[in-house]
Amino acid sequence: MTDLLIKNGRVLDPSRNLDGVMDIAITEGEITEVAPGIDPASAGRVIDATGLLVTPGLIDLHTHVAAGLRRAGAEDMMGDADTAGVHSGVTTVLDAGSTGAFNIGGFVNFIVPYARTRTLALLNVGTLGVTRAPEVRDAADINIDAGIDALNYRPDVIVGVKVRMVSPAISTLGIELPRAAKKIADGADSGAFVMVHVGDILGQDPVAAKLAPQLLSEVLTKGDVVTHSLSFQVGALLSGGKLLEEARAARERGVIFDVGVGRSNFSFESAKQVLDQGFVPDTISSDFTQMSRFAGPTHSMVECMSKMLALGIPLSDVIRMSTSRPAEVLGIDDETGTIEVGYDADITLLELVDGDFVFRDATGGSHRGSQAFRPVSTVRAGEVMPIDFGPRPWGWLPERAPDRA
Ligand SMILES: [Zn+2]
To answer: 287 CA to middle of ligand 1, Å?
Structure first.
């Protein structure tokens, strides 16, 4: 007996070279069969996915979902895990340093257990995380031993350390700032990685540009992640429009490059400059916050994927960068991120909608695209989750482009 059968969708899983109309059978939260023409008579529930893309459950490697752990009110930037997650077509979210050593217990005990979305976290190098920004002003805001204790407390949830190369810490601490994050990660009992935010969004301090090559060549090692790889901000990967050589060298050593679209870290101009130099990031992520969901220019993970599609990244690569690749980064690629018998039944149903769309960036720039993803249904460990109406007054799809004059 099969609990759930997803029938007649276009199953697209680049990690398994799957692309074709197939059915997926699910029982007790696991994938039990992937094949064309599975008999629906044996299934407790059947979803007709005709005309839809059926992909591994989307994984958003950069979100802020510590809702309620910062003071309530207009300035609360923290989003909700399931709003960023299962209600947006995403089965796994990584909270990227919303909390630090002194408050991550709140995240682990009061957010993770109640989320339907698989929710993992990075510990911020600053003891209070971005519940108070700037999270690091000087060395007094960092506690190495408390950080190591936090990682060892719940290594199944807290998988690494987040550090932002932003003012004022980059001028007070310099390269010691990311080194402190590395010290915490290396001090943990089980392999933790460091995620570094590049681009000084808080100060545009030229010191950020001086530190970037050193960060890439001397601090980061295999498995560490650079987020905001397509950023236009000072201290990101571009210098005078040219990609830092140190970025290529770091990638060759196994450093991962993430998009992290976000509210203030992405422009189509800088993205094209990076991509045109043959540097396509490894993973797509949203840097989801409550503010970005309502005010843009980044409303959701699927919108970020649509932007990458509009920039010319092929569909199969966009799916890989949002599923199996981030699963590998998180070390959960033996459970999720692929459509394979025995894996958790984490699956996303998407409609790929044709249209004349306009996408917006953080600098007021825009870019037209002819396709966009609309989430239709999320299956998380075999449970079917509803999709929210969408982050915009008119739903999920981007704005329609104005008629050409
Ligand atoms: Zn962020």
So the answer is: 5
Dist. CA 63 → ligand 1 center (Å): 6
**38 alpha carbon – ligand 1 mean position (Å):** 42
Examine the domain organization and report whether 325 and 380 are in the same domain.
no
R_g of the chain computed on alpha carbons: 20
Q: Which domain holds residue 306?
A: 57-330
Using one digit for the tens of pLDDT, what is the confidence trace for 174-205?
A: 999 999 999 999 999 988 999 999 999 999 99
Give bridge partners of residue 193 from the DSSP assignment. 160
Query: Would you state the pLDDT for residue 42?
Result: 87
Ligand 1 mean position, distance from CA 260 (Å): 7
From the CA of 398, how far away is ligand 1's center (Å)? Answer: 22
Query: 244 and 116: one domain?
Result: yes
Same domain assignment for residues 344 and 286? no
The total of structural domains in the chain comes to: 2
Residue 401 CA: distances (Å) to CA of 125, 250, 365, 405: 42, 38, 13, 12
**What are the backbone angles phi and psi of residue 349, rounded to the nearest 5°?**
-105, 125
Query: CATH code at 92?
Result: 3.20.20.140
3-state class of 147 per DSSP? helix
Query: How many A from CA of 389 to the centre of ligand 1?
Result: 24
Q: Tell me the whole-structure pTM to 2 decimals.
A: 0.97
What's 345's domain CATH number? Answer: 2.30.40.10
What spacing in Å lies between the alpha carbon of 91 and ligand 1's midpoint? 19
Q: Is 195 exposed, middle or buried (0-12, 13-18, 19+ CB in 10 A)?
A: buried
Tens of pLDDT, residue by residue over 348-386, are 999 999 999 999 999 999 999 999 999 999 999 999 999
Residue 80 in domain: yes
Expressed in angstroms and rounded, the spacing between residue 316 Cα and the centre of ligand 1 is 26
Residue 248 placed within a domain: yes
Confidence of residue 224 (pLDDT cuts 50, 70, 90): very high
The model's confidence at residue 74, banded by pLDDT at 50, 70 and 90, is very low
